[in-house]
Design a protein that fits this description.
The chain has about 325 residues and is α/β, with parallel strands linked by helices. It has 15 helices and 8 strands. A hairpin with a 2-residue loop joins strand 2 and strand 3.
Length: about 325
């Protein structure tokens, strides 16, 4: 039976790494030479086993395992990438109409000396943080905050960076009553109208309209173990088969992996993650993401403002077009 969560899937590896950490602490405490040597040998043996297990897990990942990896709690989130890739971040809050949505963060920052506007979904790593961030599911005020920042970028001619990581927009009654669909559609319209360069990076879950609401970009990049889909697989399974437990089957049918999204030309570029996932070396993946964003902005600098808007529009108009023999 397929695991339901990342922790359940990785249980064996997590226990092995906890044991390795205890051995490291014991090694630091031990002063007697023979005992030190014994613990060191044992540590190396368990590290070897950890590497074997990690290789087997990583090389046998299917679509459902990619979903679990994209949802892994230790993966870097938007605020982590802002710290890793940008400097002098100043967070701006509120939508000037209703309130501040903690599921979307944004503000101004510098990327390699260039002032930019950054917007992204933010999740939490424990129950308290997840509740505070509404599990990364933005409400109407979140998208209206994003629009406020997009318009500010247009006014001051600042490039825009967005980090996409949400299972979907908030589906609650309150969000529906405050116009979640209208807010997402309006955010997309605003992004289509921008004449400054926009680069989006799918860093975890790119789910449904909640993702596309801040991902109408000139270039869309995607991490190797992120996913991009019109609906979470459990929601798809509940609609198709009346059984949310068939999420793994739906994940395979949706072709939501980074490779699938690239084949369908939904994303322009895939970014390699450290072996075992982005969370195993955040500094390394941060450097990869930063380098890619800088390169994309450099390439987009050759476009005039009107060409940037036209290129973005044309990019999305080409989606879904195909030829039959």
């Amino acid at each position: 039976m397929a695991a339901n969560t990342w922790k359940e899937w990785m249980q064996g590896l997590i226990e092995l790494e906890e044991l390795i950490e205890k051995l490291r602490q014991a090694l630091d405490r031990e002063s007697e030479p023979s005992e030190h040597q014994r613990i060191e040998a044992r540590l190396k043996e368990f590290e070897r086993r950890r590497d074997v297990v990690l290789e087997v897990i990583t090389t046998r990942m299917g679509p459902w395992e990619e979903v679990l990896m994209a949802r892994a709690e230790p993966r870097p989130y938007t605020l982590d990438y802002i710290e890793l890739c940008l400097t002098d971040f100043i967070e701006l809050s509120g939508d000037r109409r209703y309130g501040d949505d903690k599921a979307i963060v944004g503000g101004t920052a510098f990327l390699d000396g260039q002032a930019v506007v950054v917007v992204g979904h933010q999740k939490g790593r424990n129950l308290q943080e997840r509740t505070f961030r509404n599990f990364g599911m933005a409400k109407p005020e979140g998208y209206r905050k994003a629009m406020r920042l997009f318009r500010m970028a247009e006014q001051f001619r600042l490039p825009v960076v967005t980090f996409v990581d949400t299972p979907a927009a908030d589906p609650g009654v309150e969000s529906e009553s405050r116009g979640i669909s209208e807010a997402i559609a309006e955010s997309m319209r605003v992004m289509f109208s921008l004449t400054v360069p926009v680069v989006s990076v799918v860093i975890g879950e790119g789910g449904s309209g909640g993702a596309i609401g801040i991902a109408v970009a000139n270039k869309v990049l995607m991490l190797e173990h992120a996913i991009y889909s019109v609906i979470p697989p459990e929601g798809c399974a509940a609609i198709l088969w009346r059984d949310a437990k068939k999420g793994p089957e739906a994940a395979a049918a949706l072709r939501l992996t980074a490779k699938g999204a690239h084949e369908f030309m939904l994303v322009d570029r895939l970014l390699e993650e450290p072996f075992g996932g982005a969370h195993r070396d955040p500094a390394s993946v941060g450097e990869t993401v930063k380098k890619a964003i800088v390169e994309e902005f450099e390439a987009l600098s050759k476009f005039t403002p009107s060409e940037l808007r036209e290129q973005r529009y044309s990019r999305f108009r080409r989606m879904g077009m195909y030829e039959t023999a």
